[in-house]
Write a structure and sequence with these properties.
There is one protein chain. The chain is α+β, with helices and mostly antiparallel strands. The protein has two domains: about 160 residues, PUA domain-like (Roll); about 110 residues, no CATH class. It is about 30% helix and about 20% strand. The chain has eight helices and 13 strands. Strands 1, 4, 5, 6, 7, 8 and 9 form a seven-stranded mixed β-sheet that branches. Strands 2-3 form a two-stranded antiparallel sheet. The chain has a two-stranded antiparallel sheet with strand order 10-11. A hairpin with a 2-residue loop joins β7 and β8. It is elongated, with a radius of gyration of 22 Å. The protein binds zinc ion. Zinc ion (ZN) binds next to β11. This is HNH nuclease domain-containing protein.
């Protein structure tokens, strides 16, 4: 058995390695690539091939947990696991509380050890979220309560959490967990390319929401997403660019009349009338036409929030 110091060193090294591998958490990692991790010269799998819980034989506590990828039209990947307090739940392995994997999770909880959560964003491809902590066990529901970094000192969970804390918890969980998973799903679906201009540099790409206020419907689904470069994301959100339900790109009229350098000429005006260049190969991952239409109507009528110096200009007519 390893000492506590060995355990701590392994977790720290694993998380550093993952950060380096994933562009500081921007990118997902494949099961195959995870196999490259070594600790003190030895191969050390960070994730079990079959099981959701990875509990290395040398440790008393679990090292990672995994949520398997499910296709977008199947069960939602995480909404079903969100508790009333805004914290995530992770199910036991089977229903025997004394199984070594479940004991490994309990040990991680009792010792407050940081874990890695691997979220499947495609078969064999994972978005690692780390560190996460287990802050409570709900035996009757056979699950643990998971907190992301920053929330690990939450003492109580459950219904009686106050509203202010709950809003904070939900916000943190969204930022640390839902956003990265959403990004992972969208980037994988679009092959890490801007849907509008095909740019393929991950640090310059965002997972954009088609309808920004659809969060409350639980639409973190890839169908409310578009992989867009930073410029096209901001242009879409601010109403400079619109995308019709048949994937045609429109550029706002006053912008079409402007004359400027190559970013405006090629990067924006030149797109007018084009269709999206990159779409997910899986039909059920393509942008939802109703959501596109909702946003497109806002673009056409100019009710998209706008922050440019063209705010006073007459809006384009239908
Ligand atoms: Zn672009």
């Amino acid at each position: 058995m390893w000492t506590e110091a060995d355990d701590a060193a392994l977790r720290e090294e694993a998380m550093h390695w993952l950060a380096a591998w994933t562009n500081d958490g921007l990118d997902a990692i494949s099961y195959e690539d995870l196999g490259d991790f070594r600790f003190r010269g030895e191969k050390m799998p960070l994730k079990d091939r079959q099981l959701g819980i990875r509990k290395p034989a040398q440790l008393t506590a679990a090292l990672s947990i995994t949520t398997t990828f499910r296709a977008p039209n199947k069960e939602r990947p995480y909404d079903d696991r969100l508790g009333a307090d805004g914290l995530m739940r992770y199910k036991w392995d089977g229903d025997n509380p004394e199984k070594y994997t479940n004991r490994g999770l309990r040990a991680a909880m009792q010792e407050r050890l940081p874990l890695i959560w691997f979220w499947g964003v495609a078969p064999g491809l994972y978005k690692p979220i780390f560190p996460v902590y287990l802050v409570a066990e709900e035996r009757e529901s056979q699950q643990f309560v998971v907190a992301t970094d920053g929330l690990q000192n939450l003492e109580s969970t459950g219904q009686d959490i106050d509203e202010v804390t709950k809003r904070y918890v939900v916000g943190e969980t969204h930022r640390r967990l839902h956003q990265p998973v959403f990004r992972g799903l969208v980037m994988r679906a679009y092959g890490t390319r801007c849907a509008i201009c095909t740019l393929r540099h991950s640090p310059l790409l965002d997972a954009a929401h088609i309808v920004p206020d659809a969060h409350q419907d639980g639409v973190a689904a890839v169908r409310n997403g578009l992989a867009l470069c930073k410029i096209h994301h901001a242009a879409y959100d601010s109403g400079i660019i619109g995308i019709s339900p048949d994937y045609t790109i429109g550029v706002r009229e006053d912008v079409l009349e402007e004359v400027d350098g190559p970013m405006l000429e090629f990067g924006l005006k030149g797109l007018h009338g084009n269709t999206l260049s990159v779409l997910p190969s899986r039909r059920n991952e393509r942008p939802d036409k109703n959501l596109l239409d909702r946003q497109y109507q806002r673009f056409k009528t100019g009710v998209v929030p706008r922050r440019t110096r063209f705010d006073f200009v007459k809006l384009p007519e239908e």
